[in-house]
Design goal:
The structure holds two protein chains of two kinds.
Chain A (H helix, E strand, L loop, with lengths): L2 E3 L4 E5 L4 E3 L2 E3 L6 E6 L5 E7 L5 E3 L5 E5 L4 E6 L8 E9 L4 E4 L3 E6 L1
Parallel strand pairs in A: 2-12
Antiparallel strand pairs in A: 1-4, 3-9, 5-6, 5-10, 7-8, 8-9, 10-11, 10-12
Chain B lengths: L3 E3 L3 E4 L5 E7 L5 E8 L3 E8 L6 E2 L6 E7 L2 E6 L8 E8 L11 E2 L3 E5 L1
Parallel strand pairs in B: 2-11
Antiparallel strand pairs in B: 1-3, 3-8, 4-5, 4-9, 5-6, 7-8, 9-10, 9-11
Classes of the chains: A mainly beta, B mainly beta.
């Protein structure tokens, strides 16, 4: 079955330090992967996506993600965290067979000053 | 600027009531989606539509129905609300034909529904 997993419920990092939010996937066929962010009391906002091509994908707000086919991972990264990055982050994978996105359970990122 | 609006931010209803959640997008998108968001479960797809008057069941359609009479509007209906339908409901839209995997979805702000 196609699925996506976010193994960490919460990630804590100090402002200015690099951050990583983990995502692994399981799909048959080519994976189409997305990251979304949800700020408090807001809907989800698109950050970045991997469809094909370069394994390092750059997105909004200085975020990037690395697609690793051998490890079936698509981790979200940022070189220097900001307090304003504190939010809920969702990884998602597109299911070709049924034309829909499958979301992970979400990871809460807390950046302390 | 892309915009998806939902009729209410907060809603409180009683068990057994019929509940309508409305979603409108102004981007002329073909596809529209209804999700519910619960802590620890992420987003789960209730229904989606890739054209006017078309609808497809998602992962958790039980207890819900939808209506799409116009391209810009997608309504979620709880026929008889129950307490286990207390949740955050998110509407989204995306361009492209059905199966267009490369397009991101645009989300509304959500409706937090409480059923008492």
């Amino acid at each position: 079955a196609q699925s996506v997993a976010q193994p960490e419920d919460q990630v804590n990092v100090a402002e200015g330090n690099p951050l990583t939010v983990k995502c692994t996937y399981s799909v048959s066929g080519n994976p189409y992967l997305f990251w979304y962010v949800q700020y408090p009391n807001r809907g989800l906002q698109f950050l970045l996506k991997y469809i094909t091509g370069d394994n390092l994908v750059k997105g909004s707000y200085g975020f990037e993600a690395e697609f690793n086919k051998s490890q079936t991972s698509f981790h979200l990264k940022k070189p220097s965290a900001l307090v304003s990055d504190s939010a809920l982050y969702f990884c998602a994978v597109w299911m070709d067979s049924s034309y829909k996105l499958i979301f992970g359970s979400g990871t809460r990122l807390l950046v302390r000053p | 600027d892309v915009k998806v609006t939902q009729s209410s931010r907060y809603l409180v209803k009683r068990t057994g009531e019929k509940v309508f959640l409305e979603c409108v997008q102004d981007m002329d998108h073909e596809n529209m989606f209804w999700y519910r968001q619960d802590p620890g479960l992420g987003l789960r797809l209730i229904y989606f539509s890739y054209d006017v008057k078309m609808k497809e069941k998602g992962d958790i359609p039980e207890g819900y129905s939808v209506s799409r009479e116009k391209k810009e509007r997608f309504s979620l209906i709880l026929e008889s609300a129950s307490t286990n339908q207390t949740s955050m409901y998110l509407c989204a839209s995306s361009p492209g034909l059905a199966g267009a995997f490369s397009y991101e979805q645009y989300f509304g702000p959500g409706t937090r529904l409480t059923v008492t």
